[in-house]
Amino acid sequence: xxxxxxxxxxxxxxxLTLGEIATPxxxxxxxxxxxxxxxxxxxxxxxxxxxxxxxxxxxxxIPHSDGAGVIDGVxxxxxxxxxxxxxxxWNAAWGRAHGTACQWVCLPSPQAxxxxxxxxxxxxxxxxxxxxxxxxxxxxxDGVAGKTVLVAGGAGAVGHYAVQMASRLGAARxxxxxxxxxxxxxxxxxxxxxxxxxxxxxxxxxxxxxxxxRGVDRVIEVDIAVNGAADVELLxxxxxxxxxxxxxxxxxxxxxxxxxxLQLQFFIVYNLTTADRARATATLTRMLDHGQLEHRxxxxxxxxxxAAAHALVESGKAIGNVVLSTSA
Length: 328
What we know:
With about 325 residues, the protein is of the alpha/beta class. The chain is about 30% helix and about 25% strand. It has 11 helices and 15 strands.
């Protein structure tokens, strides 16, 4: 089968290779997915670049955890009824050498989740990291029902889903920050009640104005290293900052935090508990079945152009998700 891989860390055009490798066979408890789409996420780019670790985790890595396709093989212990099922994948490349940047992947059966017929395959390749991250950030704790929520980076792959999910899961108001007027239009269309152009407007002052001085109940934070100080100021008493990303080290201002009884919560979608993942997956499936989500695809590339796809994600210029077509 065709697969894209790297055997050293570095720039995408220098280390990513397209080649032929053996087609895998599912083991006990596994399914084999004939992939049609592979999702490229910032974490995939960071792993390939070596910014997370300077060491190769395996001699050869087929990247990407997210993908979508059809089950065409099952191992012992997996019901034959799964054959022919459209699915999306999660954690395909997490702690594994074989991700979805290829034509076939074998995974434990639970890591291939039914994809509703009304959802396109390319959208399915955006669910494992972007959509589940957004949904867990919305659901965690006691959720967002009745709360005012601020989504930082509302036009990003995670943020765009988070705006929609918070709106549909009972938030009283959804605010979002973006960097450009073009992104503001995208976020308003996704359901944000108010959009703040953080490069042009004073963020804290604008949030206070929009909330009549009270602040927001929950911040869904894409970069707490950059935004953490502002988050402490714009959160209402007893508010929550739920962070799934950071561009650097984080320091916490203890007395402002304790004076307002604020909560800082962190998570990485790869390490969700079994219960949290089951809740998020079930909720996501219901939303997909009812056509409640818009999936924003920023760019589509063939597998042979994986280096260009990585470069686009690395640039930060994509408004939405970047996917690769892996079909033969």
